[in-house]
Design brief:
single chain, 8-stranded parallel beta sheet
Length: 635
């Protein structure tokens, strides 16, 4: 549904850029209303006041209804002039008792049900705006605008707000199940590509490996210990200046030799790529002169203050390249190709891709796609798009970029979202599970987290070692299994971490090492199952990490649970999220029988059970009617 003050504009940035599939719409005009019917969805527009109502065609049940906030208010849509042909736009809908709302990206508030929340529609570190919601009433809703704003899911009404936009645009779909809704959304905004084989094992990362020798020493030690390693990551500051996008030869004298040795060990190298551009970098003048930097309406094109280690220890103002401009994406790719891809590097960590601006004033920014207030949320998707499209042009068929932010449609560009810079606590672990489940309900099927949290964590502390183990056990069942964090003792330059303590499996003492090794061995056995589930899921828009309600929507308890989940169709996982816990109460959804992986005991669905959860294991249950073989079995 689109609405504007004077006329509908075509070609504005949004998520519905793919050619629409065939649809058999029935349009009817009546004296009091006009209706459009497509499959399960019938939308009517009232002749008297223009209000829109969506109902299900098979049951006649109301799904969603526009509703003014007051009987004297002129409609449910409000346009307030903001200058330059833009408006502050509000869209209001009725609230429904008992409705549950899931999706809407990633947020750190610790809730799975978004009903009752107010969410800012602006990209931030750990706060990811994907404006797509799945309702328990049987509809999916996309706020098809990358404008900065907010959404309020109150008890007395729902309100979507764009601070400044040219027109209002939203999209509604209906489905008999939440899985049907996700399938419709993927058809409309894009399906994920095939998940790369190289990406499903262990990712080793920390803030940060300082030089080539340290990276190779870690990879060799994994090989010596017989621990399978898929990816090792080189974090930021491996360059001389932000925007150089290359290895500083003082610390990385032979990057091609490093890549070759890692490949001989079966390890892929991933490198951090930031969108920031320092005036001291080799790219700055070229990008500036070509108009490829994010501009401002007032003041200099300086959007953050970051230390450029050697020449500006106190910090220097940096710009950002404009990822919404195809020419800028091509210019940045030319440097990535020359400095990384030609060395054999095809995995990129697109960090700080919100982009991370300090202070964040999107209303003062000017992008190629439009004013910042109207298009700022689009940035992370377009940044990933540039890498994906150029890699596939090189013939690459397995593309994955690790990203800290995303928007609707990001999934079609091979993005794996992660949780951002979160605390190293059990509370953050529990919150991450809920955040990951909402990402799954947002149509982003690839997601992961920093095992152990990001901020801090002492490898020598027994309590923290327990957290690492429990977090690792959870991550075994995520699309990516990734060790990362800024461990003690941490080093800083101003607010920026420049180094930290060890973060390898063997860094946490023998007991924790054994427990994480057990988890890693399980992950290796699971990899064929994970790829089959990922491939089957991408065809129908289903994630690997699934809230119970996706597979068991008819079980009311499945809608209540946010601390256990399904890995694919067949594995139910109940992570341990409390310190010192050695048992776990687990709900087994109705509609299937469940086999306890640890004991072989079969439990009837629709029941609760309490099972042991020793330090070195996590409760796992296998669904009946699963694959012909047990994906957990040691062959």
């Amino acid at each position: 549904m689109r609405a504007a003050m004077h006329g509908i504009a075509e070609g504005l940035p949004g998520a519905l850029e793919l050619p629409p599939g065939p649809a058999a719409c029935d349009i009817a005009i009546h004296a009091d209303r006009a209706t459009v019917t497509n499959g399960l969805l019938r939308v009517s527009v009232a002749a008297r006041d223009g209000l829109v109502t969506a109902v299900r065609t098979d049951t006649g049940e109301e799904l969603l209804r526009e509703e003014p906030p007051h009987f004297w208010w002129p409609g449910a849509r409000h346009f307030e002039a903001a200058g330059g042909g833009t408006y502050r736009i509000e869209q209001r809908f009725a609230a429904y008792d008992g409705e549950r709302i899931h999706g809407l990206g990633q947020h750190g508030h610790g809730r799975f049900d978004q009903k009752g929340t107010v969410l800012e529609l602006q990209q931030r570190n750990g706060e990811v705006t994907v404006p797509f919601a799945v309702s328990s009433r049987g509809y999916g809703f996309l706020w098809n605008s990358p404008a900065v704003g907010r959404v309020e899911f109150a008890a007395n009404g729902t309100r979507w707000v764009a601070d400044r936009a040219a027109q209002l645009d939203y999209w509604v779909t209906a489905g008999r199940t939440p899985a049907d809704i996700l399938a419709n959304y993927a058809d409309a905004t894009g399906h994920a590509p095939a998940f790369p084989r190289w990406a499903s094992g262990l990712w080793q990362s920390k803030l940060r490996y300082r030089d080539q020798a340290e990276v190779l020493d870690v990879a060799r030690e994994y090989a010596r210990r017989g621990l399978p390693l898929s990816v090792i990551v080189i974090d930021y500051l491996h360059w001389r200046h932000l925007g150089d996008w290359h290895f500083d030869p003082d610390h990385w004298p032979d990057p091609r030799g490093m890549v070759d040795e890692l490949r001989s060990l079966g390890v892929e190298l991933a490198v951090s790529v930031w969108p920031s551009v320092s005036p001291l970098s080799t790219a700055y003048a070229e990008l500036r002169d070509a108009g490829h930097l994010v501009a401002t309406y007032n003041g200099a094109t300086v959007h953050a203050d970051w230390p450029d280690i050697d020449d500006a220890p106190g910090g220097i103002g940096v710009a950002f390249y404009d990822a919404t401009a195809p020419g800028a994406r091509a210019a940045v790719w030319a440097r990535l190709q020359e400095q990384y891809y030609k060395l054999g590097i095809r995995a990129f960590w697109l960090d700080a891709c919100e982009p991370e601006m300090l202070p964040g004033h999107p209303h003062n920014l000017s992008y190629a796609a439009g004013p910042g207030s109207q298009v700022a949320n689009l940035y992370p998707r377009e940044h990933a798009r540039g890498v994906y499209e150029h890699l596939t042009e090189q013939g690459e068929t397995e593309v994955l970029s690790l990203v800290r932010s995303a928007w609707s449609g990001s999934q079609r560009y091979g993005t794996a979202l992660w949780s951002g810079d979160i605390p190293a606590t059990f509370e953050a672990l529990a919150d991450s599970i809920r955040a990951g489940l909402n990402v799954a309900m947002s149509g982003i099927p690839w997601w992961t987290t920093d095992i152990g949290g990001f901020h801090g964590g002492d490898p020598g502390d027994e309590d923290y070692r327990e957290l690492m183990v429990r977090w690792f056990q959870f991550a075994v069942f995520c699309p990516l299994l990734r060790l990362h964090g800024h461990r003690e003792p941490r080093q800083f330059q101003g607010p920026i971490g420049t180094g930290g303590g060890p973060n390898e499996i063997w860094s946490y003492g023998e007991r924790a090492e054994q427990a994480m090794t057990t988890g890693l061995q399980l992950r290796e056995r699971l990899r064929p199952y994970l790829h089959r589930q990922l491939e089957a899921g991408r065809a129908v828009g289903l994630p690997l990490l699934r809230p119970l309600l996706l597979e068991f929507p008819d079980d009311p308890n499945a809608w209540d649970l946010d601390d256990q989940f399904l890995c694919g169709r067949d594995l139910l996982v109940a992570p341990v999220i409390r310190p010192g816990a050695r048992e776990r109460r687990v709900y087994l959804p109705a509609g299937a029988d469940w086999t306890d992986h640890a004991t072989g005991v079969v439990h009837r669905g629709g029941t609760w059970t309490t099972v042991p959860a020793p330090f070195d294991s996590v409760p796992i249950f296998l669904r009946d009617g699963a694959e012909p073989f047990n994906p957990l079995r040691e062959d």
